[in-house]
Write the structure tokens for this entry.
Amino acid sequence: MERAWTAALGLNVPSVCENLLQDLAVVMRKATGTAITTQGTGIEARVYQATSDLATGTLAIIDDGTITMVTTTATMDWSDRLILGWFRGLGGATEYPGGTNDYLFDAGTLLNFYGYTGLGALNGASGQVSAGNPPVRNAGTSWACLVDTNLWIYYDAADGKLKVYNDTGSTLRTPAILLFASGQTGAR
């Protein structure tokens, strides 16, 4: 879990911080890019639900790392973390929780992944990943987690955000992602 603030001996602890500790103990914190705005809080986990389809050759931000409390705002560094999770492209645009067909949420294929964010991903020309320029893994310089054939989750060192890139050749309908991230490994 990322530290949002540091306490010291004799420091008055605001109630918002005590409440945050209780909320984080539940299980999850929602991703900043999710359509499931009622998701509860918890350990360093993210639930991401797209509000629209993810066309092939494009990317979407999963999370920007912002941790906000009433007294402070901190940013999580997504680099150098092990990530474990599940990805599901839905069958229709309204199958996410709260959508008119959310009773079909479990109808899509569930893919699991386990990867490493390293120092971030680069494209094939060793430049920043962008629409039409997917991430390419390269020893010591570029890291991306392969979810399925040509479907990637990666850390973008240029803006500090965790992203998903669809290079499958087809549109993914309002994808959903549940992921857990370790603390930084200290390896990079």
User: Anything to note?
Assistant: The chain has one domain: 15-181.
